[in-house]
């Protein structure tokens, strides 16, 4: 199904990139980058648990689940520990994890638990496709280092994903192309992806707002 | 308003998407979208249109910084 997902995502990705771009405006960037790391840690620490849940829910006689049961464990290995990397990046700025992550993060990740449990684990591929299909540009870590004056080690996670995630994105799209999904399952993946894009825009817009209506929960 | 016969394509065109340049494959996908999917797309497009043009112009450089 990757063709229809790509077509739909092509309509919304410009808005997602616009929202992210607002984060990197020079004024107040150092403080905003710290808040971005805190929120991305809150997002990323849900990645492996979501895939573990999806793998668990794939314990059923279903050809789609059989293939997902191979994919999720492999992808869990690729993503495991990356939330800890973010904590290290944050530590260079004297930051700790959010004690209570923002409602924007809950709105982003929360529906995935519902769709995995009550619709089909394949819905999670829409979420993964959006996150990994919109990885940092290779020049972003250097640009941020220059604008913030922060040391290189504050950008370790960003730099890794600028390199690794384009390949991961192709993996999930190739998997979707391979799967013989029902019309309902295809809709579930598309809705999951579109909701994810909208929720990420909400998160980025909140981070970019100077009045800090979101994400002011430094540890 | 546009001359698109399909309701979904007409809604996308009215929102400013360049439906005239869509491939047949894209048109088939968009014609088959549910109301929920269409509403999600149009809501995101409205938010993009509300942004200053200079911010949009810089958005390609950095990527969305997700992982």
Which labels suit this protein?
heterodimer; A: 219 residues; mainly alpha; Heme Oxygenase, Chain A; globular; B: 67 residues; 5 helices
- Number of helical stretches of at least 4 residues of chain B: 5
Oligomer: heterodimer
| Secondary structure tally, helices of chain A | 10
Q: Which regions of chain B have little confidence, pLDDT < 50, spanning 5+ residues?
A: none
- Main sheet specs of chain A: none
Relative strand content of chain B: under 5%
Can you write the helix and strand succession of chain A as a string? HHHHHHHHHH
Q: What gross morphology of chain B would you assign?
A: globular
How many distinct folded domains of chain B? 1
The fourth-level CATH homologous superfamily of chain A is: Heme oxygenase-like
- Please describe the biggest sheet of chain B, giving its number of strands, its sense, and whether it closes into a barrel: none
> Which structural class matches the secondary elements of chain A?
mainly alpha
Largest interface: A-B, 48 and 31 residues
Radius of gyration of chain B: 14 Å
Q: Kindly report how far apart the N and C termini of chain B lie.
A: 39 Å
Helix coverage percent of chain B: 55-70%
* Rg of chain A, Å, rounded: 17 Å
**Morphology call of chain A:** globular
* Beta strand count of chain A: 0
Averaged pLDDT of chain B: 86
CATH class of chain A reads Mainly Alpha
Brief sketch in words of this structure:
The complex is a heterodimer of chains A (219) and B (67). Chain A has helices at residues 2-23, 29-44, 47-57, 63-79, 82-91, 103-118, 124-132, 140-148, 156-178, 183-208. Chain A is an all-alpha fold.
Structure description:
The complex is a heterodimer of chains A (219) and B (67). Helices cover 73% and strands 0% of the residues of chain A. Chain A has 219 residues and is an all-alpha fold. Chain A has a single domain (2-213), classed as Heme Oxygenase, Chain A. In chain A, helix 2 (29-44) runs antiparallel to helix 10 and helix 3 runs antiparallel to helix 4 (63-79). Chain A is globular, with a radius of gyration of 17 Å. Chain A starts with a helix and ends in an 11-residue tail after the last helix. The model of chain A has no long low-confidence stretch (mean pLDDT 91). With 67 residues, chain B is mainly α. Chain B has one domain (3-62). In chain B, 60% of the residues lie in helices and 0% in strands. Chain B is built from five helices and no strands. Chain B has helices at residues 7-14, 24-31, 35-49, 53-57, 59-62. Chain B is globular. The model of chain B has no long low-confidence stretch (mean pLDDT 86). The chains are: A mainly alpha (219), B mainly alpha (67).
